[in-house]
Each structure stands twice: as C-alpha cells, then as structure tokens.
Amino acid sequence: MAAPDLQNPPNCTAVLSLSGDHESHDSQPPDSGGWITFPFIVGALTGLTLAAGGWGANLIVYLIEEFNVKRIDAAQISNVVSGSSSLFPIVGAIAADCFFGSFSVIALSSCVSLLGVVLLALTTLDFLRPEECGLASTLCKNPSKLQFSVLYSGIALAVIGLGGSRFTLATMGADQFHKPSHQAVFFDWYFFSFYISAVISNTVIVYVEDNVSWKLGFAITIAFNLIGLVIFLLGSRFYRRVKPQGSPFVDLARVFVAALRKRKVLISLDNEDYYCNHQHQGPVKTVTATAPTKSFRFLNRAALKTEGDIRFDGLIAKPWRVCTVEQVEDFKTLIRIFPLWSSSIFLATPIGIQVSLTVLQALIMDRHLGPHFKIPAGSFLVISLISTAIAIPLIDRILFPSWKKLTRHSPTPIQRIGIGHILNALSMAVSAVVESRRRRVAHMRNLSAGSVTPMLGVWLFPQLVLVGVGEAFHFPGQVSLYYQEFPTSLRSTSTAMISLLIAIAFYLSTALIDLIRRTTTWLPEDLNDGRVDNVYWLMTGIGLINFFGFLVCAKMYKYKNTNEGSTNNGVR
Predict the structure, then answer these.
(1) Torsion angle, CA of 207/212/218/222, rounded to 10 degrees?
(2) CA 346 to chain centre
(3) I need a surface site. Which of 55, 126, 194, 378 has the fewest CB within 10 A?
(4) What is the predicted pLDDT for the residue at 139?
(5) Would you tell me how many other CB atoms lie within 10 Å of the CB of residue 294?
(6) Which residues contact 26 (CB under 8 A, 6 or more apart)?
C-alpha cells in the first residue's frame, strides 16, 4: 500500500476506478490498447475456439465409435470434460489477476492446449485405440491402460489450455478500452465471433471427422490452435497490459478476519473512525464515500480504527486487524451478488443435460437431409450456436434500441438474464414433447435395441433454437453484470465466474443423470426403452422454480456501479 500524503491525512474520500483500468502507464506507450487490438484478440479467439470445437464437439461420438465406451457413460465423460473446461478458467483468471497478467496466461494456456490436441491426434493411430466394434455388438474390446492414459492425458491438457485462455481473452479484450460503452460493444462482438467459430468447428470439422477421417479432423484442429497462438503473439506490441495486483483474495480474507476479531467493538457513526486510505493507478474518477454502507454492518468493524491499528505515517500496522473501507465494500459486493450468481447454476444445469441427451437422441433418429447428406450427431448442437450467433446482433441492434425507445431505459444485465431463464425453461418443455413423440414412434414400430427411429432429426431443432436464443440473452448479460459489479481487482475473475457456474452446472448435471439412472429406469442403454421425456419434464420444473428464486434475488439487488449500469435496480 502506497504511503499517504502526510500533509493530507487519510479520510473517507475513497478513490474508485470507474474505468476498470489498473495498468502501469509509465511502462507502456500512451496509445496502447484500443480497437487496433481487436483483430488480434478475435483472431486468437477464433483459432482457439475452432480447435476446441474440433476435439470437444464430437467427443461423445469419438468415445462410442472409436473407444467402445457405452452411450450413457460417454455422455457422462463429456459432461465432466465440459465442466472441467469451465472450471479451469477460474484458475487462469486468478493467475492473471494476481501473479502473471492476462497476456502470459493466455500464451501459456494456448501452448498447453496445443500439446493436448497433439496427444488426442495420436489416439487415432491404430496401436493407441482399441479394435473396431459395431454399435450393436456386445463383445467390444475395452481400451488398454496405455490407450486410456494417452486419451485422458490429451483431454486433460486440452481442457486446461482451453480453460486458461477462453475467458481471460475476454477480460484482456475489455481491458483495452476505457469507456464502458466500448467494453459492452467489445463483449457483444467477442461472443458473436465465439459463436460463429463454434458453428464452423461443430459443422465443418465434425463433418470431416465423421465422413473423411478422424486423423484429418484432428490435424485441422492442431493447425487452428497453432494459428490462434501465432495471431495472439503478433499483437503483443499493441496490447495494454494490466499490471497484476497481487492476490485480492488475501484482502477479502483480511476483511472477514478483522471483522471477526473486532466483533465486540461498537460500530461508530463517525466517518473519521474508519480507515479509508486507497492506493490507485491509472486514470480515475473520485467519488465521496462518507462511511461504509449500512448493509452487512458487522463487516464495517474491519475498517474501524482502534488503538495500535495505524502507524504514525498513516499506514496499516496490523493488516489482519484493520482494512480499508473499499476492501470492506468489495467484500460486501461479492456477498450481494452471490445469490444471483448461484441462481444461474440451475439455469445452466438443464442445458448440460440437454446437450448430452440431444446427441444420444440424434444417434437413433433419421439424420438425413435429402437422399445424400446425413447430419453428424455431434453437429446437431450447432443449431443452438447458430441461433445464438444470429440472435446476439439482432438483440443488440434491433430489440434493445426498441426497448430503450419504449421504456427510456436500456435493459439491465439482470433483465437479460431473466429473459434467458424463461426461454431455457421453455426449451426443456419442448424437448420433453419431442422426445415423447419419438418414443411413441419407436414403440409403434417395435424397434430392436440400437435401431434408428423413423423420425427426422430436425424435430430436435426447435428446442435447440430456443436454448440458443436464451443463451444470447443470459450469457452476455451475466458476463456484463459480473465485469461491471465485481471489484476492479477481480476483473479477470469476474468474467470467469460465468465459467465457474457452468462448471458446477455440468458436474451437477452429471450427478443428476447418475442419480436418475440409480433410482429410475428412465435412462437405460437403449433409449427406446427409457423415459428421456420425464428427464426433460423434471428439468422444466427445476428451471421454473429456479426462475422464481431468481426474481426474488433480482428484486432485492441494487447495482453498485450505477454509472456503468443501465439502471439503479436489478429489475424495474
């Protein structure tokens, strides 16, 4: 903490950064950052996303057809991989915020993912995969320990690399801009580029893997990963690099410990009794904070000055007994936003279940479009990605401007998330209806195990369109909310919080599927004998209950950064 001006002792005029920039301007050109960095960041995102889709989108099919893994087990493995892909961004964000900076984390993660994809490509060699096995055969040879080791090592490295780059790229891109309006535009086009890249990987690369060869598909994946890494490094001279702030989590822990140690001290109403010294870097705007806020008043004790807490020069003498007002308020912000964040876990959990079951449904449906073209099962999910990619610019350029004209207010991030809740629940209900119809058709034809149901796979499109449009609302809404509301020292962590909840949701979806398999007969190996529709109805119910909980949390929430937010309250 910087030494205060001894001629002007610390008071409660807190200096808050409204720009979100904490870079050291002395060490960089004054014109670093800005839109000149956009092509490099989006180019890196495109290459890395194409690579990730090349190995991840078709993973269930690869495990079933090339490694003889049972269908539901393959879906479970895919859910765990998806959860891990969303968990590691938190590790990458913490490393970027606290120690190494975004640039170093992204560069290293891209190298790790490249190594992982290379190992996955090696599993296409004959000696590193089991003998071929027909889908209807019950005498399939299991992979050896060596084959499983190479497979899982490749997946693990690819997951770690993907996790360390995806959301850290988003934060680094936003850090290139001072104005929140420019950051919002960046986020919209960032996710638009992300979804377009995912569409291409989920169609073109998956088609190559299914209809040409897995070897060529993985070779293309390696090439895109390498291209993304090179593009990112080419832009290094233009980036504005945010200086790591050290671990903000230590400061948060200090707030709790200091408040606990002073639990018997009476809370003061005098502003001068609170420690408000604040270190800052970069261009800032000052606002006056007369005292800690009244919410969670117990924590205010952490900033209350007592004998021996402060040295004669105004610095803290006992770091675990007193904190700044800003640190206390940052801790409160995390507490306030936690209910909203946790409600999104059950927004993403049904999506995780739908993703796995849709691929399994597609495998036993008529996937032909015309007499000569057959949609790969792993490519069905691209409908959701296309829907999101189309919906994002329509929402940004048509729906939201119309909304603002009618209400005189731009929609808040929380309102965007709420619309996503509704569309997600509707998608689960449509999924249940479609599966009920598919099951009836299968039973009417008395199909044998593993037989294809004479029902077009395009019946799966409506549910995927709904979930995709819903994602166009709630995904950018959540990233915008967390980036806007989190403490500035946790900006990389803030954008990765969406990834953490997705990770928890995928792990939870895996646990729910396992629980359903153990307690019901809804998910047998042959889905024609199961009740997948009941699973979807269960997800619909969970989604509706969660939505009402979300409404309660949204009504109670108030934005901290009102100048950056659209309105003062969560819902109007």
Answers:
(1) -90
(2) 14
(3) 126
(4) 65
(5) 8
(6) none
> Which segments of 262-345 are extended strands (E)?
285-286
Fill in the DSSP letter of residue 560: S
* Lookup: tokens for 343: 């409600």
At 537, list the tokens.
């109805």
User: Mean pLDDT of residues grouped by 10 in the chain (572 residues)?
Assistant: 37 36 42 84 93 88 85 85 82 80 91 94 88 62 86 92 85 83 81 86 89 92 95 90 73 88 86 70 39 84 86 81 87 89 90 89 89 83 87 88 87 91 96 94 80 90 95 88 80 73 86 91 87 95 94 86 46 42
Residue that has been written with the tokens 């449009």 in this structure: 469
| Secondary structure percentages of the chain, helix, strand, coil, to 5 | 65, 5, 30
Q: Which two tokens stand for residue 190?
A: 């960032």
Q: Give the containing element (helix H, strand E) for 477.
A: helix 461-485
Termini Cα distance of the chain: 40
Judge whether 495 and 477 are in contact, CB under 8 Å.
Answer: no
Give 179's DSSP letter: S
459 and 437 Cβ atoms separated by less than 8 Å: yes
Phi-psi region of 452 (alpha: psi -120 to 50; beta: other; left: phi over 0): beta
Cβ atoms 299, 322 nearer than 8 A = no
Amino acid at 111: C
**Furthest CA-CA distance within the chain:** 89
CA dist 366 → 375, 429, 528 (Å): 9, 22, 14
Cα gap 166→203, rounded to integer Å = 20
Closest CA to 538 of 509, 564, 563: 509
Q: Can you tell me the distance from the alpha carbon of 334 to that of 17, in angstroms, rounded to the nearest whole number?
A: 17
How far apart (Å, rounded) are the C-alpha atoms in residues 11 and 31? 34
Q: Which two tokens stand for residue 368?
A: 């032909």
Q: How many CB atoms lie within 10 A of CB 399?
A: 15
d(CA 283, CA 446): 71
- Which of 128, 198, 167, 274 is closest to 492 using CA atoms? 167
Provide the whole-model pTM: 0.70
